[in-house]
Fold this protein.
Amino acid sequence: MRVAVRAMAAISAIALIATACGSKPSSSKNKTGNSASTSSFKACLVTDTGGVDDQSFNQSAHQGLIDAQKQAGIQEIFQESKQASDYAPNITAYAQQKCGIIVTVGFLMGDQTQASAKKYPNQKFAIVDYTYDKVMANVKGLIYNTAQAGFLGGYLAAGMSQTGKVATFGGQKLPTVTIYMDGYADGVAYYNQQHHKNVQVLGWNEKSQNGSFTNDFTDQTKGKNVTEQFMQAGADVIFPVAGNVGRGAAAAVQADGKGKVHMLWVDSDGCVQAKQYCSLFISSVVKGVEPSVKQAALDAKDGSFKGGNYVGTLANGGVSLAPYHEFYSKVPAALQTVITKLKADIVAGKIPIASPSQPKS
């Protein structure tokens, strides 16, 4: 992951340049659902551009703070970043409010979070999907080895495919996106090896690290278009790694109406976060943003907060494959049993995960 961080320095620099132009923060919102907060402690969330209702990792981070509020009575508020130039002013605005903890969401906010943490050393921060080479005492990096869960998703997709073609695409070519795609491709490859099959993965070449990207996390039309292309090419299991864009993919599959194309959701349990599309989701490749954000907020409130890195894995429950929900009776029992065994083998180190974007610690 550290290599990946350095590799994305140019993108972060672009975001910083845009910030220097002086954009106003997006409007602050309070969406706690519980006005009876008993604490003066404020947990403040700065979302990435997908927005707090993206049915993906921004929404999961927000839910983590809501869960902390329910348990400990903290106040939770958030600001949505509409564009990259909102990151720095949104973070600064909360730092000046002296929030108990500021949670920033997304790889692209790494440099801005670091700059604010240095400027406000007494302010506690947590950042989703980013870590730093040099640990800062006031920053908790929350990262997740989603290649492990992606492997299970890829094996499942290959096992459920009737056409011998599955697909994936990303929102942007970031390590936190391609790590899912690597795991997915590895899972398909392992299925092929075990069953002497040749299920193809459209949209991602792990060897070259090139594939299909919509270049944003918000435009659902792009998700719809790329998914339609995959379906026309014969793919019958689609795995979007693109936040809100994934809803466009789901809309395309739903509109197809033939019931022969299915999906895996990403980051959160799709049948919880995107209920209207639950009938399309075989399962979801889950990143445990919600519990890790909740714990960071609780630690900040009770005084046990420590800087450093948290790495979510299959072993500690920080990543997972969601329940099959409406597909429980459709996924063969033998396939379900194998996937349970694969999880145990990955945890035991019997199946190595090869993604260059997975966390190194």
